[in-house]
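Hi D.,

Good news: the full-assembly prediction came through. Inputs first.
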Amino acid sequence: MEKAVCLISGGMDSAVSAAIAKNEGYEIYAITFNYGQRNKKEMESAKEIAKWLNAKHKILEVNLRQIGGSALTDNIEVPEETYGIPITYVPARNTIFLSFALAYAEVIDADYIYIGVNAIDYSGYPDCRPEYLEAFQKMADLALKRSVEGRPIKIKAPLLYLSKAEIVKKGIELGVPFEKTWSCYREGEKHCGRCPSCKLRKKAFKEANVEDPTEYEE
Amino acid sequence: MEKAVCLISGGMDSAVSAAIAKNEGYEIYAITFNYGQRNKKEMESAKEIAKWLNAKHKILEVNLRQIGGSALTDNIEVPEETYGIPITYVPARNTIFLSFALAYAEVIDADYIYIGVNAIDYSGYPDCRPEYLEAFQKMADLALKRSVEGRPIKIKAPLLYLSKAEIVKKGIELGVPFEKTWSCYREGEKHCGRCPSCKLRKKAFKEANVEDPTEYEE
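Then the structure:
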């Protein structure tokens, strides 16, 4: 059985992305980064999703608070509206995460890495764009021992060109337990319903015409 | 004063690379990775070099033992002779280190990253090749908030096309205290003088016709 490393954040997109990998027949090696994100619910959700996938799950301690520069790791309040690149942007986050995924894939001898990035209904992060992923792939094709051996590791982003509503529909089709995923930027017991990430989540279910299983504060 | 992030490992090459950055007039922000390398002397050397450079020095905890797959982080003996890509290769190491350097450079608003990689007398690592660095640069030019703002961060590898002997000569010219640097892969009090890295070090001083200040076990 071929192996795929799947980045699982605890959110909806990475759960659907990994479910697609599973559906394509790969043995799933899930990784989740404990990067100093303020919200701890994400981690519990990631564990639940990995369990649902029947995946091996590795939690990597990669402390991005040492670097700072983001509302997700520093004590900066997340506003309800954002323009341009939001303050929830974490410098080089996907680059750092994909680099670790490359290393892990090489060590366990996996041919694929699945990441749930999305260029349509996304948050304006530069490292979610198709041209970024293409450039990362080209770099990866030169970076590794496996590259030199002619066995490159391929990065797959199956949600790249899907809308949030299409992601929800795809997830439903694959039986993804969305009630176990977490999107909220805040630190509450329930999804706040007001932060940019909660708004995207609500919109996704609404546009997909699917009942939203999320408990929101409001 | 413009800022440059300099990757400092404690070895000769990164010390010379950072000395070149300093000589070019940048304010030096040195970073060193505590990545689970077995040799602890490297870290002491890195601190000494940073002090000599009068640099701000940040030690980043980035544990690559979580990933494994290398004699430098796992309990695998380093042989005296190697062929092809050696077992001291650490999967995706430069990719991970440069990714953190990008994040840090963006947070402190540095325009440059200096890395001491070398494609001539190098150890056969795929992530020391010019084509790898070019591809990393292209990826970096798309990855960051700064990229979108048209202020890319440039990666400089001033030693890329120098021989080890030329690196020694350049270092002597800039007053680099080579006696404070560390190259040995083993865990002894002195340089072993026999591992591939010690052999390269000895050869460098010999070919540069410069007295080797290193104390070797043999």
